[in-house]
């Protein structure tokens, strides 16, 4: 069974990996294990914003898995642990350069045998490793396709491209286009799109994704802010000024704020969709503020609803 039937509410269900980042400080040659993973971070971000959220993920009964379990339990996020045939937890090697940036390598394990989501799900979100690491990626794609057939539920994806997992650019691009065809909203960074499509114009790449099927594509531009494109609209917002401590988790905080805004528009039998330029600008402004708050502190610590409101007012 891939979806439980029932009435739609305002819950966001996040499907994807929870893993352990091995943070390797290249200057000090020190390795620190930290539980995380983009989908798990997004779920935590939604929870801190006060949004009903469920994380559907997997981990094994091994030392990294115990770290993941304890971390997720401490966050208060509702978690569904899917049965997994791989027998091991996922690990990421994050090499820190001393300037707030990281490069990654991965020891992947993503083989959920069954994916179910709560019956009050209004927005289904996925992305990152979960949509390219097999055999789980195929199960996630099936879930997205089945869910998109329901007009009252929105399907959203964050590509969060990790070439170390699938170095074949053509295969990775094809996987992202298949996913885009099964979604309503796709988010990617300008770096994601430059690697996938081989050129530096994020608008051209965003419109290539848009042609695959979603109604909205959002692109983060780092220090330049963010942009959004629909069939007839393009808007940009600048980044918020902040003192950057590190960028870990900034994209996930942005995504949590985006999903929160989309879930607010659910109900009444229609997919959530900020359609006008003013609506898109308001949504993106809130998202870049969430990312800026996260950049101002160490690690993937997204803002609470109160912190985000204060930052926007400041």
Please tag this protein with its features.
single chain; 314 residues; alpha/beta; UDP-N-acetylmuramoyl-L-alanine:D-glutamate ligase; nine-stranded mixed sheet; 36% helix; globular; disordered N terminus; kinase activity; PfkB_Carbo_kinase; ATP-binding; kinase; transferase
Describe the structure.
With about 325 residues, this protein is α/β, with parallel strands linked by helices. The protein has a single domain (about 10-314), classed as Ribokinase (UDP-N-acetylmuramoyl-L-alanine:D-glutamate ligase). About 35% of the residues lie in helices and about 25% in strands. The chain is built from nine helices and 13 strands. The protein has helices spanning about 40-50, 65-75, 135-150, 170-180, 190-195, 200-210, 250-265, 275-295, 305-314; strands spanning about 10-15, 20-25, 30-35, 55, 80, 90-95, 100-105, 120-125, 155-160, 185-190, 215-220, 225-230, 235. It has a nine-stranded mixed β-sheet with strand order 5-4-1-8-9-10-11-12-13, sandwiched between helices. The protein has a four-stranded mixed β-sheet with strand order 3-2-6-7. The termini are far apart. Mean pLDDT is about 90; it is low at about 1-10. Keywords: ATP-binding, Kinase, Nucleotide-binding, Transferase. InterPro entries: Carboh/pur_kinase_PfkB_CS (IPR002173), PfkB_Carbo_kinase (IPR050306), PfkB_dom (IPR011611), Ribokinase-like (IPR029056). One of its GO terms (molecular function) is ATP binding. Belongs to the carbohydrate kinase PfkB family. Pfam families: PfkB.
């Amino acid at each position: 069974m891939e979806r439980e039937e029932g009435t739609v509410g305002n819950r966001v269900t996040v499907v994807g990996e929870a893993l352990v980042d091995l943070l390797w400080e290249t200057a000090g040659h020190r390795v620190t294990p930290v539980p995380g993973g983009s989908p798990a971070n997004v779920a935590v971000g939604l929870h801190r914003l006060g949004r009903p959220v469920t994380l559907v993920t997997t981990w094994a009964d091994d030392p990294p898995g115990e770290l993941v379990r304890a971390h997720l339990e401490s966050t208060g996020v509702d978690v569904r642990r899917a049965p997994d045939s791989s027998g091991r937890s996922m690990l990421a090697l994050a090499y820190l350069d001393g300037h707030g940036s990281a490069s990654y390598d991965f020891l992947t394990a993503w083989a959920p045998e069954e994916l179910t989501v709560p019956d009050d799900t209004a927005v289904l979100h996925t992305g990152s490793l979960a949509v390219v690491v097999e055999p789980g990626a195929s199960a996630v794609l099936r879930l997205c396709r089945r869910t998109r057939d329901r007009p009252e539920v929105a399907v959203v994806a964050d590509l969060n491209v990790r070439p170390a997992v699938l170095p074949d650019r053509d295969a990775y691009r094809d996987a992202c286009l298949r996913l885009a065809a099964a979604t309503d909203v796709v988010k990617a960074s300008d770096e994601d799109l430059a690697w996938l499509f081989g050129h530096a114009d994020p608008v051209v790449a965003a419109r290539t994704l848009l042609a695959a099927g979603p109604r909205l594509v959002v692109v983060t531009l780092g220090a330049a802010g963010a942009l959004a494109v629909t069939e007839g609209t393009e808007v940009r917002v600048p980044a918020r000024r902040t003192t950057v401590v590190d960028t870990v988790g900034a994209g996930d905080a942005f995504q949590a704020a985006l999903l929160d805004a989309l879930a607010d528009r659910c109900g009444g039998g229609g997919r959530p969709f900020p359609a006008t330029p003013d609506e898109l600008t308001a949504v993106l402004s809130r998202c870049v503020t969430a990312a800026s708050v996260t950049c101002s502190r160490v690690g993937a610590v997204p803002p609470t609803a109160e912190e985000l409101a204060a930052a926007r007012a400041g």
